[in-house]
Design goal:
Elements: E1 12-15, H1 31-34, H2 41-50, E2 55-59, H3 62-65, E3 66-67, E4 70-71, H4 77-86, E5 89-93, H5 109-125, E6 134-136, H6 141-150, H7 161-185, E7 190-196, E8 199-201, H8 210-228, H9 240-243, E9 245-250, E10 255-257, E11 265-266, H10 277-288, E12 292-297, H11 304-320, E13 325-330, E14 350-355, E15 358-363, H12 365-377, H13 395-405
Parallel strand pairs: 1-2, 1-13, 2-5, 5-6, 6-7, 7-9, 8-10, 9-12, 12-13
Antiparallel strand pairs: 3-4, 10-11, 14-15
Helix pairs in contact: 2-4, 5-7, 6-7, 10-11, 11-12, 11-13
Length: about 425
């Protein structure tokens, strides 16, 4: 009997890189195609099944399924078939940095058109996949706003702080409209609103930048979530139910030293200014009192197992403090290229190895071994059984394991 049921059937989740942005004025990219997830979707989901993972973030590429207001979702059919075959529940990612050509995200048209798309997508996938209907309306609104509004990496290629703020507001308005449109079709649908969880400090020799670093840590980090929750701009229709599940993305480069121009500089692994992840999760919990998942996390190369160990210890320490954490998403499942260089990052559970025209999925064994170790420590399944949705995760059981292990937050990051 499940005493404290979680939201998901497994504590560990995964997902696939699915960006569809226009990149540095060089044309549209499709990361699903670049990683061959479209060609290998049955294999990819079968691999998750062997890992005991029953939930995956999966993209619906808005700019590729809508042409002039006409929707064609047929490209989802093999994805849905693969999910059903392996019994994997999707969290549908509806806008992963990409939107249709000719549409201005700062225009009045944007929110309404996004809402129509969300409703059409919800109708198409309704009842066709296992488990609870879950959606991420717009992925990483805060990071999206930096990339497209201030740094000029992706369309619409804006390049000022003021444009970043304007884009963030526009994306929040669209996301809220999308949530309401989805729930007209799926009233019980859950939303996972994803953004990076970051901590920014001033340079040691620039204490005059302390206010700017504080602003980004304690205001900018939460600005989009605040609008979705209705704490700011309530006229947009946000509410705690719209925010719903807070998806925090956690990477080593999320703790940074403030730079006045461009992306900030990641702190080194032994920097004394690093904050324990458990402390940052506590900030999110105290601010919103909503369920939390770590929506993306991974190390790089040989550091992947040590990173998972650190994240697990911090997550369990957070749960022992009463934080309502429902899962950890090992993202991506298969490797992805560095957006800038095209080189493989080696951050997936599976590396990609070129064999002729195919990218073979090669498990990174030490990472898989570390996942297995934690699954056993938490009494989680290591391979999906015939009925993975019969019982959700018992969070009380996970919390009991956390209490038993007595893990403590620390600043020691791999």
């Amino acid at each position: 009997m499940t005493l404290t049921p979680g939201i998901f059937p497994t504590f560990f989740l995964s997902g696939f890189e699915c960006s569809t942005f226009h990149w540095k004025r060089q044309g549209r990219r499709d990361l699903v195609a670049e990683t061959q997830h479209d060609r290998c979707v049955r294999e990819d989901y079968a691999l998750l099944r062997t890992l005991g993972i029953a939930v995956a973030r999966e993209g619906i590429p808005w700019p590729l399924v809508e042409q002039d207001g006409i929707f064609d979702f047929s490209r989802l059919d093999p994805v849905i078939e693969a999910m059903n075959e392996s019994q994997i529940m999707p969290i549908w990612d509806l806008c992963h940095y990409g939107y249709p050509d000719g549409l201005d995200p700062l225009s009045d048209e944007f929110a309404g058109r996004f809402a129509r798309y969300c409703q059409a997508a919800a109708k198409y996938v309704r009842g066709r996949t296992p488990g609870l209907p879950c959606f991420t309306p717009i992925n990483e609104i805060t990071f999206f706003s930096f990339c497209a509004g201030e740094w000029g990496w992706i369309a619409p290629y804006l390049a000022s702080r003021e444009h970043r703020f304007a884009l963030r507001i526009a994306l929040c308005r669209a996301a809220i409209a999308g949530v309401h449109a989805i729930r007209e079709i799926e009233p019980k649908a859950r939303m996972v609103n994803v953004d990076p969880l970051v901590y920014v400090v001033p340079p040691v020799d620039r204490p005059d930048l302390a206010d700017e670093a504080y602003e980004e840590t304690f205001k900018d980090t939460f600005a989009a979530w605040d609008i979705l929750a209705g704490r700011e701009h309530p006229e947009f229709g946000g509410s705690p139910e719209v925010l719903d599940i807070v998806g925090v993305n956690c990477y080593s480069f999320g703790q940074m030293q403030y730079q006045e121009h461009g992306p900030h500089q990641a702190l080194g692994p032994r920097d004394e200014r690093i904050q324990p992840l458990a402390n940052l999760l506590k900030l999110v919990w105290e601010r919103y009192s909503r369920p939390i998942i770590i929506a993306e996390t991974s190390g790089l190369r040989e550091g992947r197992p040590a990173w998972l160990k650190d994240v697990m210890e911090e997550s369990l320490a957070a749960m022992a403090r009463g934080i309502d954490l429902h899962g950890i998403c090992l993202f991506p499942a298969v490797d992805m290229p560095d957006w800038h260089t095209g080189e493989w990052l080696h951050n997936g559970i599976f590396d990609l190895v070129a064999e002729g025209e195919k990218l073979r999925r090669e498990p990174y064994a030490p990472y898989v071994d570390e996942l297995r170790r934690w699954q056993k420590a938490l009494n989680r399944v290591t391979i999906l059984d015939e009925a993975p949705f019969s019982n959700p995760v018992d969070l009380q059981e996970v919390c009991a394991a956390a209490q038993r292990m007595q893990v403590q937050p620390d600043r020691d990051w791999s």
